[in-house]
Amino acid sequence: MLEKLEALYQQASQELDGVNTSEALKEWERAYIGRKGAVTLMLRQTGQLPPEQRADFGRRANEIKRLLTEAFAAREALIREQELARSMEEGQIDVTLPGRPVLTGGLHPATQTLREIYAIWAEMGFQVYRSRDVETDEVNFELLNIPPHHPARDMWDTFHTTMPGVILRTHTSPGQIHAMRDYGENGTLPIRVILPGMCYRYEQITARSEIQFNQVEGLAIGRNIRMTDLKGTIAEFARRMFGANRAVRFRASHFPFTEPSMEVDVQCILCGGEGCGVCKYTGWLEIMGCGMVHPVVLRNGGYDPTEWSGFAFGMGPERITMLKHGIEDIRYFWSNDLRFLEQF
Ligand code: PHE
Question: What spacing in Å lies between the alpha carbon of 26 and ligand 1's midpoint?
């Protein structure tokens, strides 16, 4: 009887090793350890054995049933895993298909240029100062030495709000007044700031002019600041921004809030000065206006012009970006066309 039991155990174990599907596994369970399985039946026969054999046989039969039940559970887990893997391989889901990329977005080309500009001025000791977009006529024009009748106002027509005297700034230069008044402590402290931000002009929108655009203003106030400081600082900026071997030139110009005033050209960054379509065959590109802060403006900012002097400059990052990437139409910048923006 015991031999029969051991033989049955051998057979059941061997068969279980060959079971590979859950149907076959159920079959095996029924045949051996189920309610009418061979092992179960044999266990039930313990009572018919002679009394002296019952204990040994019963113990062994119970042990075998336990071992087979455990082996069954292990096999069941293995088969479930294999069947899952098989169904994933054969099923609708193609796990080898590459996933959809997550759209990460990017920085606007004007922002990229702005950050480049900030970094260069930061290295030269200039701090970013934010000034308001909505201005008064007084700060945008009058305190900058542009009285109501001044012809320069034609160049800077803007958007007016329903509040009298409240407009959208036409340039970042009114920030000079705010910086002097807020940071100057009644005209006693030197200043080195750049003032970036949006400006607005009432213009016909064309490939070359938009109704909104960024500017980066710069202001340095101190004792004994001279035109050589202005020229040296601007030349150094251009060197860092456009490369060491680009020549820079200063041309006399006019702004009501600087005296003397200049415009700055850099050797064409595309043709290197030989002449091309971008520089209109002149070899030079205009990058900013600048000058020594006008005594009237210094006084309006709270500084005594007999003691203090300074320089200011203003540049257009979109223009610089256009030059750098050969962009021919300024309207691309603020029309939110992803086909344009995704190129940067
Ligand atoms: N505000 C001038 C403009 O919009 C630029 C400028 C700034 C010129 C500072 C001189 C000094 O054109």
Answer: 88
Three-class secondary structure of residue 207 per DSSP: coil
Nearest ligand 1 atom to alpha carbon 289 = 8
| Bond prior to 260 in cis (omega within 30° of 0) | yes
Residue type for position 191: I
CA 208 remoteness from chain centre = 28
Q: Please list, in sequence order, all residues whose beta carbon lies within 8 angstroms of the beta carbon of residue 100, skipping any fewer than 6 positions away.
A: none
Q: Is the CB of 312 under 6 A from ligand 1?
A: yes
User: What's the whole-number mean pLDDT along residues 190-203?
Assistant: 96
Residue 292's CB is within 10 A of a number of other CB atoms, namely 21
> Which pLDDT tens digit goes with each residue over 290-310?
999 999 999 999 999 999 999
pLDDT value at residue 251:
97
Residue 9 · residue 34 · CB < 8 Å:
no
Burial track 114-126 (b if 16+ CB lie within 10 A, e otherwise): bebbbebbeeeeb
Give the Cα separation of 197 and 206 in Å (integer): 21
Structure tokens at 325: 């990437």
Higher-confidence position of 262 and 280? 262
Domain boundaries, the chain: 2-90, 109-341
| Overall CATH class of domain 109-341 | alpha beta
Is the pLDDT at 155 greater than 80? The verdict is: no
Query: What pLDDT score was predicted for residue 294?
Result: 98
Question: In Å, how far are 16, 72, 86 from 83, measured between CA atoms?
Answer: 17, 16, 5
